[in-house]
Amino acid sequence: MNQLITKSKPLLFLALGLSGIALSNPVFAQTCEKSPAVNLSAQAMQEVENNMVQMNWQVQVERSAAGKAMRDASNTLNEALATLKKNANVRNLRSNVETYPRYGKDQLVTGWVSTGSLSFEMPLAALEKNSDLALPENVALTNIQYFTSPDVLEKTRAVLIQQAIREFRSKASEVAKGFGQAGYSLGDVNINDQSGGGPRPVFATRAYAAEAPMAKMNVPVAGGTNQVIVSVNGQVCLKP
Q: b/e per residue, 2-32, with b = 16+ CB within 10 A?
């Protein structure tokens, strides 16, 4: 998430990691030992629209024989998959079928339950345009989540990094001026970013499967926003 890139001056060491960017210069660190040093921080923030949606669907059947249960669940799941594969907006389509026994009194097997699940992602704009995905009526929507696409997050971070750096440099200049110093040089500087995390869940329940054929209903659309924050923290060495 934090694969950030920034330009560096000669002698600067650039380290990319999961926690952000770290710039360190031993020459500057030595300079700070002989001159006043000030720790500063700056931050840039922006709300971005969630433009993607992830949905999980499920079909569940119970039969007296394991093979029959698996076959019926698989047939329904394959019908749903065939429909979704025709939709050019569907991405990362995944499916799975599991079969397990149903136990009754004295731990005797009374039947077999087969659960077919599928999940996929699609642009929120495509869902808003047509929220009826035309899936089989016994396929139930069990979970829906909204999130910001990686490309939008990266573009937003790139802009915020520059904003935070400008704010940090402005603060450094003001501090140097306030202390009557000629200027400043950089010590250790860290650049970190964070966003609102993964997909934002709207609901997650299997009760709807028994109450209504969710596949025949319009999927709820409520994307919301994601907050992206970039912070710059570091040390500046005041020049006399």
A: bebebeeeeeeeeeeeeebbbbbbeebeebb
Q: Are 204 and 142 in contact (CB under 8 A)?
A: yes
Q: Which residues of the chain have pLDDT under 50?
A: 1-29, 203-217
Question: Phi, psi (5° rounding) for residue 59?
Answer: -125, 140
pLDDT attached to residue 131: 79
Structure tokens at 176: 């140097």
* Backbone φ/ψ region at 3: left (φ over 0), alpha (ψ -120 to 50), beta: beta
Query: Considering the domain 52-147, what is its CATH architecture?
Result: 2-Layer Sandwich (3.30)
| CA-wise closest residue to 149 among 26, 14, 44, 1 | 1
Q: Considering only CA atoms, which of 61, 42, 112, 118 is closest in space to residue 85?
A: 118
Task: Assign 85 to helix, strand or coil.
Answer: helix
Under DSSP, the state recorded for 105 is G
For the chain, report the end-to-end CA distance as a whole number of angstroms.
40
- 84 close to 131: Cβ distance less than 8 angstroms: no
How many residues appear in the chain? 240
User: What's the confidence (pLDDT) of residue 150?
Assistant: 92
The pTM of the full predicted model, rounded to 2 decimals, is 0.70
Residue 40: predicted pLDDT: 96
Q: 48-74 burial string, b = 16+ CB within 10 Å, else e? A: bebbbbbbbbbbbbebeebeebbbbbb
Domain ranges of the chain: 1-51+148-240, 52-147
Nearest to 28 by CA among 209, 240, 208, 236: 236
